[in-house]
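User: I'm writing a tutorial on reading structure tokens. Could you give me a worked example: one chain, its sequence, then its tokens, then a sentence or two explaining what the tokens reveal?
Assistant: Sure. Here is the example chain.
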Amino acid sequence: MTSRSFADGAVTAAQPAPGTPALDASACDRERVQFPAAIMSHGLLFLLSPGDYRLLGASANAIARFEQECGVLAGARFAQLIAADTWVTLETQLAHLGEPGPPRHLGRFGMPSGGAAFEVFAHRSADVIVVECEPAAADVGGSADIGGFEAVSGAIAAVQAAANWQDALGVAVSHLKRLTGFDSVSANRFLPDGSSWTVAQSREPHVLDVLGKRFPRSDIPEPGRRQMLLMPFQYSPDLGDEPVPLVSFEPGLDPATIDLGYASLRSISRMCNRFYLNVGVRARLVVTLAQQGELWGFLSCWNSAPRALPYAARLACRALAETVALLVVEKEAAERQRETLAAKRRIADLMQALSAEPSLDEALAVLPARLIEAMDVTGAALCDGQRVILAGNTPPADLIEAMRPWLEAQAECFTTDRLPSLYPAVAAYADRATGLVAVRLLEPGQFILGFRPEWVHEVEWAGNPQKPVEIDVTSGEARLTARGSFEVWKQEVRGTARPWGEPEREAVADLQRALIPWQQAEKLRQLTVRLERSNAELEAFAHTAAHDLREPLRGIRNFSCFLHDAAAERLQPQELAWLDTIRTLSGRMSSQIEALLQYAQIERQDLAVRTVDLNQLLRTVFENLSAQITESAARIEIPRPLPTIACDPVRTAAVFENLITNGIKYNDRSDKCIEVGYLDGTPPTFFVKDNGIGIAERHRDAVFQIFRRLHPRDAYGGGTGAGLAIVRKHVDQQGGRIWLESVPGEGCQFYFTLAPGGAGRGT
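And here are its predicted structure tokens:
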């Protein structure tokens, strides 16, 4: 082997001869590999019509063989080629073929002319039944078959015991090599860029050493990848044989339209065939390793000479490979889960350390330094729009500040291993900021950033990864051909950082999910403090304003009365009316000031909570309202005695008094009825119901606003509109809540609870 190195993947492919037309390298990805119109030469293939099993076509070697034995095949039925007792068995199985899918093994059968037996397979392909026949190995069967499966059982146990998924593949290839007798067996893992990496290899000394090497994506074009999922088990005993064409017996049936995607004998593409021959491989066996319908990797068996592998041995290999796929994928997932849990645990420890800081602001200040300890980053930064805090190796603060608009356009948890290609301004700082993880915080422009330096490393390719263009001498046309050199090419990779794994991405998402609620809670706390301060200032202002306005208003009212009494005889009627208006307005304003003062004083008065018998409290309320109750002829009903609870008796009496007064006042019935009671619960729910005018649904919140009246000023006896606002304030102060239900014209029901300091449980 020889070595070459090249930077940044800059490899110059072999150029076509002068005058050769430009070629489309994507042509391989459009090749119709499922429609080769040919099969491998070691088997026979027949195309049958469903139902009557008439021969629609066959491989050329089948025609040559059976025309000698049975005459012309065109127009014949498949039954004519098979012994009568054999046909009974085959016909029953053919009748059960359903939708297109992998071939079924119908059995091992002899032919009428005698000779070697055939392993017979069949499957549906659109409206055609495809029957494949492979020569059965005469020396295989019985104990040999059992031995193969016993070997598989031991191999599976060894794979299961492996410490990790790489070791498991190493065990698998060793056992698969013994089972198949091939010169080399390797295990390859597909990488995110589509290339494949040889994780394990068991080989004879003369076979190409590909352990640890990378194969470019172009070595397995897209059609080949689809075929690997369609047919996970692909076997070619002699790649040097010429393909055998299909021949149609039907005028309208073109062999090139027959989908042989599920055919075991399908001739492989010329590009794929040339690839293996260039490596020195004459027989191959490829087994796909898949995870949830996606390509994970594959096992590749190579032999430098043609090698026939009996069907029983292939079954054993398939059983081993399918189990290996499950075990290896599970081991890799388990390792990734362990890495994820470890990363999450480090983030949890980080958050626990931050929670010990005196405040969120101080926690964020030390977060960059803590992040370097918790994650695999060499630098970190906090950018919150007002400051940039750096730790470790990072770009300058002004550059990070300038990145904020670009970061806003990225995902909330953003990672890249090639930041300079996305944000060129950091290219000068590749030694510290080629990799980036960015976590968006609560406020716009707030980010936690982690940086990784450029990761300069070598990748060993099994040959020049740029597929050269050559002249295909077979067709005489310019076309892409498989590369012929598999010498070691060492690529020096620059411009990227070590990639971010899924465990790391999940961990930074956890970091965001922990920080944002903390920020929200702190923001809410600050808003609450400001709101409480503002409310206290407003209440103090209201109390001061109300108190200071009382005396001037009293003077205005008194002097207007003095003026009326002293000059009534000298004033005109209009002037007397003006004086009356002054007295009325000053009286109304005085009432509003008294209500405002009462409302403001509620917050300033301490709760005096004690055990109160509400029945006794109601008797006092009724005594205070006796004149109003008598005058209105209102009927008071108490369906059952009220409980004894812990509450502030003065505030609670004010609540009942206001609600009962409202029930009498806003009631135009001749038979006014007020009901006072409670509903069982913890705490109990009290209610005051009336049969008055009710409240429309759209006004149910407005009635609790101070000075908010729903009727004209003088309607229903006037009033300040502060009563229900005062009621709600008294209820709120005692840890309860108040609400109402009403049907306009039928009455209103006010409900409220009281739970001062968590008390208020009924007794």
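What the tokens reveal: Residues 180 and 314 are 8 Å apart (CA to CA). The chain is about 40% helix and 20% strand.
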